[in-house]
Predict the 3D structure of the following.
Amino acid sequence: MGFVRLLPLLCLAFVFHALPRTAAAQVWIGFDESVALMHAFVPQCEVTKVEYATDPITARTVVSVYGATMKLDVSYLLEIDAVTGAPVSLSSAPLTDFERSQLLPVLPRLQFCTMTFGAAAQTSATALSRPVNRVRLVMLGYANTLLAYTARFDDLVLVHCDSIAGVRLADGFEGEPVARATSAQVSSAISSAELALGPSWRFLRSKLVAQTPAVVCDIDMLEPVKNLVRRARVTLGAPNQVVLSVPFQSRGTLADDAAMRRNPAVRVPSTPQEAAARMHASATNVRFFDFRFSNLGGQPKWCGSVDSPQVHLSAEFTMFLSANEVASTGFIWGRREFALAAGDFNRDARITAYELAEILNTWGEFYPPYDLNESGLIDAGDLAIILSAWR
C-alpha cells in the first residue's frame, strides 16, 4: 500500500526529469517549465496562476502552480522546489462556488491566449528593466494577462499585458483615490433619501462622493409611476443632511436600471439593506461602500463595490448578486487599488466613446448623473473631464 501511495509522485518525478531543463544561469525554474510539469502529470488541468513564495523558516522557495479542469469541477495545486525543480506535493479538491465564479471568465480566455507565461514574464521584466527571475507571479485574468513583479516581498508592481497581442497595456487605475464607506453608512444615506422623498420613491443606485471631512453619498431614487428620477446628496452626520435635485428623466444605464425597477415581474430584494446582507453572506471579509441596481448581462442584479482589509494591498472588488435567486450567490472580480472614474457612466472601468456620446446627447441639459463639474448643466467642463480621463 505504501508503494501505491508513492506511485503518483514517482511518476511525477520521472516525467519531470524527461522535460527539457532551463539554462543553468537561471535562479529558479521557469514559469513555462512549471506549467509543463503540471500538464505532464495532470493533462486536463488549465493553469491560471504560477507563483513563487519563500518559506521564512526553511528559506526554501517553492513554485505553486494553480489550475482547474475545463468542467470547473476539480482544482489542482502543484508545489515544486524552485531551485532543483523537484516536485514537492500535488493536491486536488472540488471547486467551491466562489472559486468557480472566479474562473468562469478566465478559462474561455485560455482558448485564445497565444502568450506563454514565460513571454508574459519577459514582457514584464523588459517593461520594468528588471531580470526575468525577479518576476514572482504570473496570473491570467479576465481580459488580460496580469503580471505581478516584486523587487521585494513588500514592493508589488503590476504590469498588464494583452495575452493575445503579447504587448504591454496601460496599467491605469492603480493607486487612484477612492471614497469608501461602510455598508451601514451607505444604508443610512439611502434611508435618509427614502425618508426625504416618501414611500413612493424606489432606490436605484448610490455613489460615494467624498470621505472627508464627512461621508457624502449621491443617492438616485425613482418614482416608478411618473417615471422620474431625483438625486439626493446625503452628508452623513447627526442628523444626516439631504439636498434634493429637481426631477429629471433617466437615460443611459440609469434608464435600464429604472426599467427593471418598474417591472413588477422582477423579484428583487426589497431593500438595499437586504441586498447587502445577502452579499455579506457570500463575502464576509469585505466592506461594501456602494450599492446599485443594474441590468448586467440581461439579468437584473444588485451590485456592491467593496474593499477588503484582509486582502494583500487592499484589493477592491465588485460583487454582482443575482436578484432572482433566493440563495446568496455572488461573482467577484478585483484589481489592485483602482477607483471607477467619475465619468464612467456604464461602470466598465473605462472611459470610451459611450461616455462621450452620452455627454454630447445631453449637451445643455440638466442631468445630474453626467454633470461632472456640478455646474447645473452638461457643458464643456464635463466634456473636458471625459477627455482627460479617456482610456
